[in-house]
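Appendix B. One record, verbatim.
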Amino acid sequence: MGVKALPSSAYGRFAALCGVVSAVGVLGVVGAALVVPVPADAAASTLAAAAQQSGRYFGTAVAGGKLGDQAYTTIANREFDMITAENEMKIDATEPNRGQFNFSAGDRIYNWAVQNGKRVRGHTLAWHSQQPDWMRSLSGSSLRQAMINHINGVVGHYRGKIYAWDVVNEAYADGNSGGRRDSNLQQTGNDWIEVAFRTARAADPSAKLCYNDYNIDNWNWAKTQGVYNMVRDFKQRGVPIDCVGLQSHFNGNSPYNSNYRTTIQSFAALGVDVQITELDIQGGSATTYANVVNDCLAVPRCTGITVWGVRDSDSWLGESASALLFDRNGNKKAAYNSVLNALNNADPDPSPSPTVTPTSDPGGAGQIRGAASGRCVDVPNSSTADGTQLQLWDCHSNPNQQWAYTSAQEFRVLGGKCLDAAGTGNGAKVQIYSCWGGDNQKWRVNSDDSIVNVQSGLCLDAANNGTGNGTQLQVYSCWGGNNQKWTWNRG
């Protein structure tokens, strides 16, 4: 039977993802999602054609060893327009010996894809897993240089041919640290991810460059926040990153959560595309599949979806997981129908949800005074350190309470620092941070005296209805309380 091909995320967490029975219990196997189909004469009949109606792609992972299976290739060719090599473009496959590249397996998949009119995602260039023995034996500067050489070799071979590269894969640790994985690549220095992206950009300026990871789907998880902070930092400093890949292997240990859309929106607001790169759902819930697709469709910068395999019998999870859109015989499952219906009901020209428009541009500079407390939005100790949480304090005329509101909807203070929301959930702190143009630094000043964050739609809020000196500021669901009302006092 041979060794089952595992996707990028499999090796480090296969044991955690087994237990299919319990996963099915969590996710549930349900019928078709409650999606109203469009008339048959207006609906696309394949996943790719339906996704193309809104300018997106719908792809799959392909294993080279199955290209001789006619039933497999018939479905892959008919339904998908973006192809990812399941294993054939990874490090061990493309550079089995140091400095000796072998692209035969990767080229076979690439050639099949383009001959059938499809684009290709490249997966993956720098990763702690599936390294050949020669690379695992290296460390320090030798490993760093080997990584650079590998990226140059692989990206150079496919220069101008690949739509997007997963440049770095799974560099963040599971758990509550929000920090990096302690891999051999990480041990070469914390800048290794930046170096990988800069190397890939130089090797192929036309390819989109993505960071790809699993368990970054839930906005509330520390790992998600860690990756978000890295991407935000990269965008601020001009590190070339174009997209974030959410693997979205949903199971009992990492179930779909309704804040998935918030995650997509939050990454997109940083100025990167979001691509769902390795989607499968243990149990194959049609409702969950539809929810995932609709969450992507709701965000214009969510540019495409890739499912990790064609039929259940092709899944790295095993056929019993029932995680994909087709059964072993190639029959369309309920999940397929729910996905197709969702794609066919997409807005062909998506735009952001309507927002409340400020009654006027306040202009000038001055204090932001709380209606409940009579105290002002204050930068503690006039700090200019990024991440300093703001507070209420007795109003005065010092510069740390003088806020200039710009035509870009930013509140600026202390020469180049912006009023900044550190997250999109209730209780996310409001801080100062170097201005960089993200939606988390844009605020609507409304006629009801609320100040609303553009990214999250949440209100500037004095925590716990506090009114005393030192009360911390946060964003919170708007509810009309006086702790969310502010007087603009132009200087």
